[in-house]
Design brief:
By secondary structure, the chain is of the alpha+beta class. The protein has helices spanning about 15-20, 50-60, and strands at about 5, 25-30, 45-50, 65, 70, 75.
Amino acid sequence: MSIYVGNLSYDVTDADLTAVFAEYGSVKRVQLPTDRETGRVRGFAFVEMSADSEETTAIEALDGAAWMGRDLKVNKARPREDRGGSFGGGRRGGDSFSRN
């Protein structure tokens, strides 16, 4: 299981998140996505802990908690949705215009 942490301060670091979640158990991994163009933190993260029970405890304790000037949104991460590729408008197959 992985934990989604949203509404993060743009000043947060991996070390900050590790320290907060370590209060609830052993942190295996912190993933803090950054914007490709600016390198700035995107305002959300994913945290993995050693045991499901630790993750559940952390979610219950931290969801809605004020931290670094923000009210955190903490819940079980959902699987990433397949967006169907990065090119085009999602249309597949034939042309939408007629040929003469």
